[in-house]
Amino acid sequence: MIKNLLELPSDLPVPEDDGAAAHLVGTAVPDIALPSTAGGAVVLSGFSGRTVVYAYPRTGVPGEKSLDDNWEMIPGARGCTPESCAFRDHHDELGQAGARVFGLSTQDTAFQREVAERLHLPFQILSDDRLELIRELNLPILVVGDVTLMKRFTLVVRDGIIEHVFYPVFPPNTHAEDVLAWLKENPV
Q: Is residue 146 part of a domain?
């Protein structure tokens, strides 16, 4: 059965905090150039001010099968498309709250570009398909089959230092609102 990628089932398993992101606050973002859907590469450590980087496992393609038949039973796996759409819908407000926004996954840039165009995303999606950022920061991951994916988390980076981490993220479709609320409660 083909699922509507924009809707979340009511019985999704809730991810638990396994401590995989506890070490990140206060850490400098490494000088790694990540391929971008806008072409070229982005070095997150090079930005001044606040940058919100929401990481997700993988976006689906309408009509295509998931990586795993039990995808929806993996806590935190389902919901990448609704999460991206929520960041799209709140993009202007996040900017007004002083943050630039990037999405991040291990999918390659060509795949991400299709998603960015299909969902009309006003921000760039970055690819860590070489797993460089994952290794350097020891980011939370999940492995499905032989594919390494990021667990769902969001970094708030300020002047190249990780200031805040949202982890685990649930539900993903309202997460952009949580980030916006945090930014407003913690102005620079």
A: yes
